[in-house]
Amino acid sequence: MAKTNIEKPTGFELDCVRDVYSVSSCVNQDFTDYIDCWKHNGYWLFDSPEVIREVAREKAASLEGANLFYYEAYEMEFDERQMSWTSFGPEPGMKTNVEVPEHKKLEGFDLVTFFARTSPECSPLSCNAVVEDVPANEHCLVRTFEEAKSALETGKFSNAEPGPYRIFGVYSVEWPR
Predict the structure, then answer these.
(1) Does the pTM of the predicted model rise above 0.70?
(2) Is 150 within 8 Å of 47 (Cβ atoms)?
(3) pLDDT by residue (tens digit) across 7-21?
(4) Section 19-27 average pLDDT
(5) CB-based contacts of 38: which residues, under 8 Å, 6+ apart?
(6) Do 51 and 39 meet the contact criterion of CB atoms below 8 Å apart?
(7) Which pLDDT value is given to residue 14?
(8) CA distance 132 to 155
(9) Chain center to CA of 17
(10) Can you say how many angstroms the Cα of residue 48 is from the centroid of all Cα atoms in its chain?
């Protein structure tokens, strides 16, 4: 995904947060509204930077200054009401052929809601200020997968947005030439 706004939002009083690398577009915006182009994959994201460029051309959206991110989702999702994990995968019938970047830098882990079961909805660390109760890094991401999983299992997100929740490894990637 390409994100066009990753600055620290007004009102974030935590000194540890410098900017926001959330998967959802509540705080840091996706480069454009892309769903109606139907070029996303079964995870409702993109398979490659080239597909992002195609959508940007189609929508006349600028990628100038946009940051490129690669996401890896944990194969289980957490139901905060049932306090249980279940598996999930790409939406059936939608082509998914993700190109793994040759060079990627792990920035941390985001916990994202999927109540409608389609695209990423909310990242409560930044959207609901759960970051005040869950230790995070300068990008408003949990530092380790184990900390992210524990935060869900111990109810740190129970009073945020309705889930299920998915854990994403968030990687920064250089735009390919």
Answers:
(1) yes
(2) no
(3) 877 777 778 888 999
(4) 91
(5) none
(6) yes
(7) 78
(8) 14
(9) 17
(10) 16
Q: What are the pLDDT digits (tens) for 67-121?
A: 999 999 999 999 999 999 999 999 999 999 999 999 999 999 999 999 998 899 9
Q: Which amino acid is at 36?
A: D
C-alpha 126/C-alpha 80 separation (Å) is 18
- Let me know the angle formed at the C-alpha of 66 by 20 and 119, rounded to the nearest 5 degrees: 65
| CA-based nearest residue to 65, from 1, 4, 139 | 4
pLDDT at res. 73: 95
- Is the peptide bond preceding residue 176 cis, with omega within 30 degrees of 0? no
Query: Distance between CA 145 and CA 41 in Å, rounded?
Result: 24
Residue of 19, 3, 25 whose CA lies nearest to 122: 25
Q: What angle do CA 114, 2, 32 make, to 5 degrees?
A: 75
